UniProtKB/TrEMBL annotation:
UniProt-listed Pfam families: DUF502 (PF04367)
Protein name as annotated: DUF502 domain-containing protein
Superkingdom field: Bacteria
TM regions (residue ranges): 7-26, 48-68
PANTHER family (UniProt xref): COV-LIKE PROTEIN 1 (PTHR31876), PROTEIN LIKE COV 2 (PTHR31876:SF26)
Keywords, comma-separated and alphabetical: Membrane, Transmembrane, Transmembrane helix
UniProt-listed InterPro entries: COV1-like
UniProt keyword Membrane present: yes
Length: 197
């Protein structure tokens, strides 16, 4: 019975992560393919091949990105950008989405520096990511502070703390490794240590 239970647990540990990854990739593919795929299906009918919608989306985004670098179309996109930033409610949603995308893909990427911070009044420490080092423009008394985002374990939600610069220690760890460490509750480092042994 113990042998059967052990084999079952090994099966869960081996197979479940693979199945979940395949499921997430499949759902992501279906979502991205459906963005333009649902528009193209009525026209192509039986000729529609799964993936055409995704390919069309990639081509469209690339084309719009190329057009944004051209003089006339670039000016039009800038006008649309300014309009969206002036419409009440819409400007808040637009700026959050725009800043989030730029923080991951823009020239000044956020989450590129891993920070180690001490929780006030304790000797406990937490790992986070520096999201902004220029808080003076946001609120001038915060010129000596930086924004550190600290994710919560087993979820994407987290907290943003504004901490004095001298109290933040930047550590030389890849952001991906730090994120895995946090989201897994520190278990990834334990697994690696066991594998090394």
């Amino acid at each position: 019975m113990k042998s059967i239970l052990k084999s079952f647990i090994n099966g869960i540990l081996t197979i479940v992560p693979i199945i979940l990854v395949i499921y997430v990739i499949y759902k992501t593919f279906i979502f991205l393919d459906g963005l333009l795929g649902n528009t193209l299906k009525p026209y192509l009918k039986e000729d529609y091949i799964p993936g055409i919608g995704l390919l069309s989306t990639i081509i469209l985004i690339t084309l719009l990105g190329w057009l944004s670098t051209k003089y006339i179309t670039g000016k039009i996109i800038k006008i649309i950008d300014r309009l969206l930033e002036k419409i009440p409610v819409v400007k808040t949603i637009y700026s959050v989405i725009k800043d989030t995308i730029q923080s991951f893909l823009g020239e000044k990427k956020s989450f590129s520096k891993v920070a180690l911070v001490t929780i006030p009044g304790t000797e406990m420490r937490s790992i986070g990511f520096i999201t902004s080092e220029q808080l003076e423009d946001f609120y001038s008394p915060l010129k000596d502070h930086i924004a550190v985002y600290i994710p919560q374990t087993f979820q994407v939600a987290g907290f943003t703390f504004l901490i004095p610069k001298e109290q933040v220690e930047i550590i030389n760890i890849k952001p991906e490794e730090a994120m895995k460490f946090i989201l897994s509750g520190g278990m990834t480092s334990t697994v690696k240590q066991k594998e090394a042994e």
